[in-house]
């Protein structure tokens, strides 16, 4: 992995103000490759304002459909806009859908309750689904139609290609021609695609990632988010490489490599396809704490190395409530994606998410998302520091136990307790 200092990273991307990008086009200011949809604030006097503007893209709320089945065709993406999602990220597309061959069954679910009782709540979801198997031409037509019908709404294309510069350039060009607002790069699908050196195979190899991000960012003229895999020791490394290679944002996390279980009657793994299986990607409520950990790691790195005006973080993993989303935002996320939650609860979930997030904001008197974005991040520290803080607190408590500092501190009301506090044992 290339190691870049703070100064190099900033100067390399934004310091010049005016300049030429790698394609020779004139760039104006630090955020020249941002969307153009910056509208006036929609704040109402009494209600908290959920709207966000991320890399120049204005969204009525921070809730984004995560790439997957909920963004797989025109009908479902239209539904998402109609229900009020802040933005939609379509199912990942590649140049040649004929190479993408899915199997059935491709999902397996984990339920809470005794022995995975069929009635228990679904808390974990494994999939071995590939990227979109629909012809690229069809998907592109649908993106174009959606942008014509919903010009003010944010549509983000998710793309993935093989290790081939010309292929990436062609895909970016064709996707941009549809009028989509931004691109998310799927560097993170953990199953199937890495067998073709795609997805997580790129996101897990920082040298490869840097090279491919270089190709992508030299070509793209709209904001690019790099989607990270959690299946790596230190997720801040690929996140740093993506941002320092020109991406405007990172998204995290994609699914976690998993095996849902072994059927104790047939002795075969699940999901079982003709008696065999392959490890898949784990999502839903059960992954939320892992996603929080990964997002916290990336947010800390971004806070110390990249300026928050120009670089964004989109958090994903197990979101089903406004509180889940608030947690991600408290760590520094600008937007929050939901995929499996929509598969389980439907598109109307966004209304509940908005209400619950507003309730949280009202409780704390926050009027905008920026009021509380990242405020919990500073409370993560090292274990050594926890020990130091605890020893200091114990010393303070002991000192207080020794009694009142001066005779003037006697209150009369608490006389018995105050006397007690000065007894040695
Ligand atoms: C069935 C299924 C298909 C998915 N397909 C894609 C995909 O095509 N591209 C992608 O970037 N992520 C894909 N994902 C990953 C999700 O976008 C998301 O990163 C992950 O599931 C964690 O979020 P969640 O708990 O809200 O689902 C898929 C997830 C599921 C469950």
TrEMBL record:
InterPro entries: Aldolase_TIM, Dihydroorotate_DH_cat. Pathway: Amino-acid biosynthesis; beta-alanine biosynthesis. Its EC number is 1.3.1.2. GO terms for biological process: beta-alanine biosynthetic process; thymine catabolic process; uracil catabolic process. Keywords: Oxidoreductase. GO terms for molecular function: dihydropyrimidine dehydrogenase (NADP+) activity; NADP binding; uracil binding. It comes from the Eukaryota. Transmembrane segments: none annotated. It is an enzyme of class 1 (oxidoreductase). Residues 50-361 form the Dihydroorotate dehydrogenase catalytic domain. One of its GO terms (cellular component) is cytoplasm. PANTHER family: DIHYDROPYRIMIDINE DEHYDROGENASE [NADP(+)]. This is dihydropyrimidine dehydrogenase (NADP(+)). The gene is Vigan.11G222200.
């Amino acid at each position: 992995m290339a190691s870049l200092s703070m100064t190099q990273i900033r100067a390399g991307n934004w310091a010049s103000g005016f300049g030429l990008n790698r394609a020779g086009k004139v760039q104006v200011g630090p955020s020249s490759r941002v969307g153009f949809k910056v509208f006036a604030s929609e704040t109402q006097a009494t209600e908290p304002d959920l709207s966000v503007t991320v890399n120049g893209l204005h969204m009525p709320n921070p809730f984004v459909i995560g790439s997957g089945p909920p963004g797989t065709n025109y009908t479902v993406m239209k539904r998402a806009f109609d229900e009020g999602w802040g933005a939609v990220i379509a199912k990942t597309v590649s140049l040649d859908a004929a190479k993408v061959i899915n199997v059935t069954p491709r999902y397996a679910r984990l339920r809470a309750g005794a022995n995975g009782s069929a009635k228990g709540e679904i808390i974990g979801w494994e999939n071995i689904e590939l990227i979109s198997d629909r012809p690229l031409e069809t998907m592109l037509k649908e993106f174009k139609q959606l942008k014509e019908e919903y010009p003010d709404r944010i549509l983000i294309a998710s793309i993935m290609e093989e290790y081939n510069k010309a292929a990436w350039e062609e895909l970016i060009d064709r996707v941009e021609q549809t009028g989509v607002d931004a691109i998310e790069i799927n560097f993170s699908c953990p199953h199937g695609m890495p067998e073709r050196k795609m997805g997580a195979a790129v996101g897990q190899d920082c040298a490869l990632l840097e090279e491919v991000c270089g190709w992508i960012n030299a070509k793209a003229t709209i904001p690019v988010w790099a989607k990270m895999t959690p299946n790596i020791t230190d997720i801040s490394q690929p996140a740093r490489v993506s941002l320092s290679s020109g991406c405007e944002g990172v998204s995290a996390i994609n699914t976690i490599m998993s095996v849902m279980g072994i059927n104790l009657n047939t002795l075969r793994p699940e999901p079982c396809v003709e008696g065999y299986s392959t490890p898949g990607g784990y999502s839903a409520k059960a992954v939320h704490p892992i996603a929080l950990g990964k997002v916290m790691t990336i947010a800390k790195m971004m806070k110390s190395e990249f300026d928050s005006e120009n670089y964004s973080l989109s958090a994903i993993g197990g979101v089903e409530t406004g509180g889940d989303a608030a947690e991600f935002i408290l760590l520094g996320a600008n937007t929050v994606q939901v995929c499996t939650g929509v598969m389980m609860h439907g598109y109307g979930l966004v209304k509940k998410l908005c209400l619950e997030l507003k309730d949280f904001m009202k409780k704390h008197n926050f009027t905008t998302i920026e009021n509380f974005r990242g405020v919990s991040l500073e409370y993560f520290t090292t274990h050594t520091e926890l020990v130091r803080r605890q020893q200091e607190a114990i010393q303070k408590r002991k000192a207080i136990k020794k009694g009142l500092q001066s005779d003037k501190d006697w209150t009369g009301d608490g006389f018995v307790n105050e006397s007690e506090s000065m007894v040695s044992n």
